[in-house]
Structures are given as structure tokens and as C-alpha cells.
From TrEMBL, chain B:
Alphabetical list of InterPro entries matching this protein: MetI-like, MetI-like_sf
Top-level taxonomy: Bacteria, Bacillati, Actinomycetota, Actinomycetes, Pseudonocardiales
Organism name: Umezawaea endophytica
Family affiliation: Belongs to the binding-protein-dependent transport system permease family.
Record-given protein name: Carbohydrate ABC transporter permease
Domain (ABC transmembrane type-1): residue spans on this chain: 84-275
Pfam family, one: BPD_transp_1
CDD domains noted in UniProt: TM_PBP2
One GO term describing the cellular component: plasma membrane
Subcellular location(s) of the protein: Cell membrane
Topology versus the membrane: Multi-pass membrane protein
Gene Ontology biological process terms from the UniProt entry: transmembrane transport
Transmembrane segments: 23-44, 88-112, 119-141, 153-173, 194-219, 252-271
Keywords: Cell membrane, Membrane, Transmembrane, Transmembrane helix, Transport
Length: 291, 287
């Protein structure tokens, strides 16, 4: 049944229409638009590298880049070790294993908007806020959380880590089952302690997955939008304005018509960075699933 | 015993190791209860607690009085029922479009195998490397051009352009036994019959995976529906909730949040295996 007969074309049609209109054409268009002066009223005109120059000269860009990197670093510090430790411990659980993973994954299925709005209430900066009450019980605080430029980003990252950690735990748990028991037995014959086995057998076996989750996390955090948009709107004092929030502001925040050229120029620059990371990711998953 | 982890059965018999493992597991379980179930239970409690109680003592385990009317008020007076229905429509349409595109494309590429199959698969998979942010502005302008603003089509159709679904379905179809297709062809089945009566019934597992993730993703989506559905009458819960916060009372607002959480959590509890086994990595990729 090989060939490209009319039946094949009929089956391909839905994909060709949907991808053509809503994926391939917009991708090409975003490249074109980044070199154009576009608004919805007059016809677009060629602008050369002007959009890129405008974006690169915007002092807010460097604030946004710094904030996004800061978010990524914080997210790695918090979001990287916690799921790993949890997964290694969970893989040793003998009873109610399912309960552990269900509880760990529950935050992932709560709609992100609901989670952020709920946490916004928890983050109430007054001494009677939920988290401040909890911290007050052990003599800490009150913490200003979202109200202060020095703590706002950390607050965002804590919520984002809580929301995403369960997914990472499940990935690690799956990888942990692939560690061959003979390797542990060999380590035991060599007299390895429990820590020795974790450090010399478990962690090296997870190296591939650890690298993949590392890249996934960077690609994900570079596109963070929901948390700064709903928690703080980029404030206080632009301390939580991320790159994606800046793109959104260029294109959609001004009700008089967006600066689509700058927005697409910045998205393209971000995409090149992320594309390199995704390419590495894709190669890794292939070699990882092949081994 | 082949099914083992770091700890051997010998380790488990050593008192010190066993004690430490038990302690670590208990601490972990308590933390997971607090972090995983805690916020959900808090939301459930606060949804039926009067505002004053929640504000005065947010961490009270048992409220002074229950106020089940919050749920009814949220559902009818704040019109959560309409937004809920919008969300259901958006999720259902996005699900249908994704399933249609993924199965027909997967069937054409994997079973019918046209000569240009490799090139076409390449162009589809290449979109996986393009982060969604690149599409934001041009896709928005496309939707404006097609006059789809404030219609569900603006969410449904772009959802179909999901290369990951096609990859999943195509891989599954690749592993179906070819002899069955050949036998069907000898019996005179054309491609449409082969698709409908043989390939689709054999693909229930993968269609389940794609379906659950499609519904959950549609339920979660925020930025895109916010852009293309500016009219509150067609907005889903995720878009409407942040706006509602400004003009409704806290207890009713929390009730609305609770209502929005029920469906995804119920789906998760019903299809736990799907989330906790194979699908984790695939879900992570689309983020």
C-alpha cells in the first residue's frame, strides 16, 4: 500500500491545513515580521535590522534577561535537587508506593491559574497571611513576599517549583527502575555503604536523565510568563519582568496597537537560544532511549 | 530477588539502616501530604467557609460555620457555570481537532507511506524545535486575519498543530503488525475502511494518552485564550478567574477556584497510571 494516491492526500489534508495555517506560515511570518515595521492599520514596510536595534537598545531588555536568568538559577537551586532526593527516597519505599507518587504529582494537575491565584492569597504580606502565620509560629517574619523587589522573584520560583516538581519526580522514578540490580550487588561485594551505592551507582546511572531535565528546565524557565504576569505583573520595580513578559508587553499591552516588529525580533532571538538547547535535548533523548 | 533498589535485603535487616529509611520515608510522606494535598484540602475547606473566618484565621482546621451557599453563588451569580461550559467546549473541540489531525496524519505517514513521507515527517517534527513564543504574534495576527477572534475556532485549530501528538501516534502505528493490514487489503478493504475498522480500534491505548493530555492542556491554557477571546462571554475559567478576583468576595472567589480544580483532579485520579507511567516525559516536553 505504498504511494501518494488521492486517499493519502485526503488523510494528510487535516494536518496540512492546520500545520500550514497555524504553524508553518506563522513561523515564516515571524522571521519576515522581525524585519518589518508592522501595525494593523498601514501596510508593513521593510525596516532592516531596526527592530533588533530597538530591542537591544531597550534598557528593560537587560533587566528582563537578568530576571529570567535569575529565575532560572533559583529554579535550578530549588527545583533540581528536591525532586532528585524525593525520587531516590521514593524508589526505596516498600509499602504505599503509589500514594507517594500520587501526592507528589497532584500539584501538577491543578490548573496553573488556580495555583497562582491560590498562592497569591497564601503570600499575603501581612502578619496574618497564611505563610506568614506559619513562619510566625517558628519566630520568622513577617516576610513581604510579592510586595518587595528582593523577595518577589524567590516567591515566584517557590510556587513554580511546587507546581512542576511532581513531573520531574516521575521522570526520575522511571529512570531509577532502569538501574540494574547487579550493579548494586557488585558494589556491595566491594563493601560499599548505602551512601556509597547512591553516589557511585545510582547518580552515575541517572546522568543522562539529569542532563535532560536540566535542559528542559532551562527551556521552560526561559519562557516563564504566567507567574510574573499574574503574581506581580512584572513588579515591584520591574524585578520580575521576564523576557516573555516583555515580548507580551511589546505586542499586546498597548491598547493603541502593538509594536509587533520588536516583539517578533525579541522572540526570534530567544528562539535561537532555546533552539540550540532543544536540539541538544533531542539528541540526548534519542541516545538515552536507544541505550 | 531481582526487584530491588539501593538497599539490599541485608540492609533492610540492619536496624540502623532500617530505622533511618523508615524515618526518611515518614518525613517524606508528611511533607508530600502537606505540599501535595495541603493546598487542595485548604481550598476545599475555604470554598465553604465565610470570608471573615478565612481572613481571621486562615489556618483553622475547622471553620466556625459552613457556608455552602458560596458554591451556589459562584456557580450562578458569578456565572461560573457559563465559564465552566466554555472551558468544556474549548477542551472538547481542542481534543477532537488534535485527535483528528494526529490519527489521519499518523495513518497516512505510517501505514500508507507516501514517497515524500520522510520529508513531510521532517517538516512536522521541525516545529518541535520552535518554541511557542515565536508563534505568539504571527499566530495572533493570523487569527485576526481569519476573523476568528472571539470564536472557539481560534483555540481549537491551532491546538491541532501539535507535532508531539503526531510523533506519538505515528510511533504507535509503526509498531502495529503489518500482516493485519495486508490481510485486510487482500480482503478488499480500502484505506478508509482500514483506518476506521482496523487501525483505530487497535490504537485505543495511544488515543487515550493523547486524549487525556489534550483535555488537561486545554484546561490549563491561559495566555493564548486570553489573547484570542477578549469577550468575557466566551472566555474559559483560566482567563476569567484572574479578572473576577477584583470584584467578587473572597469566599465566593475561592469557591470558584475550587470548582475549576475539580475536573483536572478527577481526571488525574481516574487515569493515574497514564500520568505516572509513560506519559510523564511526553507531558514534560510540551510543558
Amino acid at each position: 500500500m505504498r504511494g501518494g494516491g488521492p486517499a493519502t492526500v485526503v488523510f494528510l489534508l487535516p494536518m496540512l491545513v492546520v500545520f500550514g495555517l497555524f504553524s508553518w506560515a506563522p513561523i515564516v511570518q515571524s522571521v519576515v515580521m522581525s524585519f518589518q515595521e508592522t501595525n494593523l492599520v498601514t501596510a508593513p514596510t521593510f525596516a532592516g535590522l531596526e527592530n533588533f536595534r530597538t530591542v537591544l537598545a531597550d534598557p528593560l531588555l537587560w533587566t528582563a534577561v537578568r530576571n529570567t536568568l535569575w529565575f532560572a538559577v533559583l529554579a535550578l537551586l530549588l527545583g533540581y535537587p528536591i525532586p532528585l532526593v524525593a525520587a531516590v527516597l521514593m524508589s526505596e519505599v516498600r509499602r504505599f508506593k503509589g500514594l507517594y507518587s500520587t501526592l507528589a504529582y497532584l500539584p501538577v494537575v491543578i490548573p496553573p491559574v488556580v495555583a497562582v491565584l491560590l498562592w497569591k492569597f497564601f503570600y499575603d504580606a501581612s502578619p496574618s497571611g497564611v505563610f506568614n502565620t506559619l513562619l510566625g509560629a517558628v519566630g520568622i517574619g513577617p516576610v513581604p513576599w510579592l510586595q518587595d523587589a528582593s523577595t518577589a522573584m524567590v516567591s515566584l520560583v517557590i510556587e513554580a517549583t511546587w507546581a512542576a516538581a511532581g513531573g520531574t519526580v516521575i521522570i526520575y522514578l522511571a529512570a531509577l527502575t532502569s538501574v540494574p540490580p547487579e550493579q548494586y550487588e557488585a558494589a556491595e561485594i566491594d563493601g560499599a555503604s548505602v551512601w556509597g551505592k547512591v553516589w557511585h551507582v545510582t547518580i552515575p546511572r541517572l546522568r543522562g536523565v539529569l542532563l535532560i531535565t536540566f535542559i528542559l528546565q532551562i527551556v521552560g524557565t526561559a519562557q516563564v510568563f504566567l507567574e510574573p504576569f499574574l503574581f506581580t505583573g512584572g513588579g515591584p520595580a520591574n524585578s520580575t519582568t521576564t523576557v516573555l513578559l516583555l515580548i507580551y508587553n511589546y505586542a499586546f499591552a498597548n491598547s493603541l496597537g502593538g509594536d509587533y516588529g520588536s516583539a517578533t525580533a525579541l522572540s526570534l532571538m530567544l528562539a535561537v537560544v532555546l533552539g540550540v538547547l532543544s536540539a541538544i535535548y533531542f539528541r540526548l533523548t534519542r541516545s538515552w532511549s536507544a541505550s | 530477588m531481582t526487584d530491588r533498589g539501593v538497599l539490599s535485603s541485608f540492609d533492610w535487616r540492619r536496624g540502623r539502616v532500617r530505622g533511618a529509611a523508615r524515618l526518611a520515608h515518614t518525613v517524606l510522606l508528611v511533607l508530600l501530604f502537606l505540599a501535595g494535598l495541603g493546598p487542595v484540602l485548604w481550598l476545599a475547606k475555604s470554598a465553604i467557609t465565610p470570608t471573615q473566618d478565612t481572613l481571621r484565621d486562615p489556618l483553622a482546621l475547622w471553620p466556625n460555620g459552613f457556608d455552602f451557599a458560596n458554591l451556589a453563588t459562584a456557580w450562578t451569580r458569578v456565572k461560573i457555570d457559563e465559564y465552566f461550559l466554555n472551558t468544556v467546549w474549548i477542551a472538547a473541540g481542542a481534543w477532537l481537532v488534535q485527535l483528528l489531525v494526529a490519527t489521519t496524519a499518523g495513518f497516512a505517514l505510517s501505514v500508507l507511506r507516501p514517497r515524500y513521507r520522510k520529508a513531510l515527517t521532517g517538516v512536522v517534527l521541525a516545529t518541535l524545535f520552535v518554541p511557542a513564543v515565536v508563534l505568539l504574534v504571527p499566530l495572533y495576527l493570523t487569527v485576526v486575519d481569519l476573523s476568528m477572534i472571539n470564536t472557539f475556532w481560534a483555540v481549537w485549530l491551532p491546538a491541532g498543530a501539535n507535532a508531539f501528538n503526531i510523533l506519538l501516534v505515528q510511533r504507535f502505528f509503526d509498531n502495529l503488525p503489518r500482516e493485519v493490514f495486508e490481510a485486510a487489503r487482500v480482503d478488499g478493504a480500502g484505506p478508509f475502511r482500514l483506518f476506521w475498522s482496523i487501525v483505530l480500534p487497535l490504537s485505543r491505548p495511544i488515543l487515550g494518552v493523547v486524549s487525556v493530555f489534550a483535555v488537561i492542556a486545554a484546561w490549563k491554557d491561559f495566555l493564548w485564550p486570553m489573547l484570542v477571546l477578549p469577550d468575557p462571554a466566551v472566555q474559559p475559567l483560566s482567563v476569567r478567574l484572574p479578572a473576577l478576583q477584583r470584584f467578587i468576595e473572597l469566599d465566593v472567589f475561592l469557591a470558584a477556584l475550587a470548582i475549576s480544580t475539580v475536573i483536572p483532579v478527577a481526571l488525574f485520579l481516574a487515569f493515574q497510571r497514564l500520568f505516572l507511567n509513560g506519559g510523564a516525559l511526553s507531558g514534560a516536553v510540551k510543558g
